UniProtKB/TrEMBL annotation, chain B:
<dbReference type="Pfam" id="PF02775">
    <property type="entry name" value="TPP_enzyme_C"/>
</dbReference>
<keyword id="KW-0210">Decarboxylase</keyword>
<protein>
    <submittedName>
        <fullName>Aldehyde dehydrogenase</fullName>
    </submittedName>
</protein>
<dbReference type="GO" id="GO:0030976">
    <property type="term" value="F:thiamine pyrophosphate binding"/>
</dbReference>
<dbReference type="GO" id="GO:0044281">
    <property type="term" value="P:small molecule metabolic process"/>
</dbReference>
<dbReference type="InterPro" id="IPR051818">
    <property type="entry name" value="TPP_dependent_decarboxylase"/>
</dbReference>
<dbReference type="InterPro" id="IPR011766">
    <property type="entry name" value="TPP_enzyme_TPP-bd"/>
</dbReference>
<dbReference type="GO" id="GO:0016831">
    <property type="term" value="F:carboxy-lyase activity"/>
</dbReference>
<keyword id="KW-0456">Lyase</keyword>
<dbReference type="InterPro" id="IPR029061">
    <property type="entry name" value="THDP-binding"/>
</dbReference>
<feature type="domain" description="Thiamine pyrophosphate enzyme TPP-binding">
    <location>
        <begin position="49"/>
        <end position="157"/>
    </location>
</feature>
Length: 187, 200
């Protein structure tokens, strides 16, 4: 990983973002709602370059829950990409997919999860899975590259086959913990 | 179309906007706007929301992008719109030509005891929409603005936002069905036909 970067992102050689993109294509996902995260940057670039995918950049993640509810009403399948901090913004809006029995797959890049440097990321990162599950979401985690494709595929299938919010959490260990260039355990 | 106060009556406005609506799809924000579209005539092309405050306009965006050949109208209140102001930026960025947002602005939180909203104190939702990049953002205070708005909802070539200043009285409840799964399924079937209930 790049220890000097201000945001965490996968190593350039990591190919799991491309595997997620391949799953989105195989599942006929044509609307992608997102608030950017460095961990999703490669996947976002792939989606933006795809003329069959409508990318909607949100001002806050809860818009994505409402947006994708509307897309589903119109027969379009979408996913929401966000960082774990954004999950906190979605809590009440998750009432909509529960109320309407709307598929709502989310792919969440974790912060505050494994080797976090920024103390502000820890409260929400530590609570992400708990609050998603408190709002009726089926949550699966991928912490190693080999789990990503299967987890994302299962998350999207469970959403659209069983009509509910679902989420894959992409662990910080997978993405690479940010250290601002400091050695592990340093000041 | 005027209430005794001299301001526009919300039910008369909504009735006029939904007259001869054709296959117009209507999403209503929670509370009084949902009761208003129900009073005008509950039907499968209506999706009255019971929750998700702040999400009505951007839900309309998702639908408008998914169904570019259909006209989508979101009718919501000033309190609901204020909770999701960012949606105006998100909508402006996508410029959906088939999406209209009508804000019934009574300058109060009507369902919770009539507390004043920010619009009572000068916050101008149409100006915010224009600032976001929605060029057709109008404020309507008199009946003569309603018929042109109805025309625009069916014929506009760019997204529009209309803030309609209305009387603040709470009117008799006209509740839509409460079961969200039913509301969503009938709305989807109205749009997609029986295929709505099979795997995409």
């Amino acid at each position: 990983m790049d220890r000097d970067a201000l945001e965490m992102r996968p190593d350039a050689a990591a190919e799991w973002p491309d595997r997620i993109y391949a799953v989105l294509k195989a599942q006929n996902i044509t609307q992608v709602a997102l608030v950017p995260d460095a961990g999703h940057s490669r996947l976002i670039r792939r989606c933006l370059a795809d003329n069959e995918i409508t990318v909607v950049t949100l001002t806050t993640e809860e818009e994505g829950i409402a947006l994708l509810s509307g897309a589903w009403m119109g027969g379009v399948k979408g996913v929401l990409l966000m960082q774990s901090s954004g999950v906190g913004n979605c809590i009440n809006m998750l009432s909509l997919p529960i109320l309407h029995r709307t598929p709502m797959p989310m792919i969440v890049t974790m912060r505050g999860d494994y080797g976090e440097f920024n103390p502000a990321q820890v409260p929400m990162g530590n609570a992400t899975q708990t609050v998603l599950e408190a709002m009726g979401t089926l949550v699966r985690r991928a912490d190693v590259p080999g789990d990503v494709e299967a987890c994302v595929d299962a998350t999207i299938r469970m959403a659209f086959n069983t009509y509910r919010p679902t989420a894959t959490l992409l662990g910080q260990r997978l993405i690479g913990a940010k250290t601002f260039g400091k050695a592990e355990g340093g000041e | 179309m005027l209430a005794p106060s001299g301001k526009l009556d919300r039910r008369a406005v909504v009735n006029a906007l939904l007259a001869d609506r054709g296959d117009l799809l209507v999403i209503a924000g929670l509370g009084a706007p949902a009761w208003d579209i129900t009073a005008a005539g509950d039907c499968p092309n209506n999706l009255p929301l019971w929750g998700g405050m702040g999400g009505a306009a951007v839900m309309g965006l998702g639908l408008a992008l998914a169904q570019p050949s259909r006209r989508v109208l979101v009718i919501t209140g000033d309190g609901e719109a204020l909770m999701g102001l960012g949606a105006l930026a998100t909508i402006a960025t996508k410029q959906p030509p088939n999406l209209a947002i009508v804000v019934l602005d009574n300058e109060h939180y009507g369902e919770t005891g009539g507390q004043e909203t920010a619009t009572k104190h000068g916050v101008d939702l149409a100006a915010i929409a224009r600032g976001a990049g929605i060029a057709d953002a109008r404020t309507i205070t008199t009946p003569d603005g309603i018929a042109p708005l109805r025309e625009a909802i069916h014929a506009a070539t760019a997204p529009l936002v209309a803030v309609i200043k209305i009387d603040a009285a709470n009117l008799p409840l006209k509740l839509p069905p409460r079961e969200g799964a039913y509301l969503a399924a009938r709305f989807r079937e109205a749009i997609l036909g029986p295929a709505a209930h099979h795997q995409l």
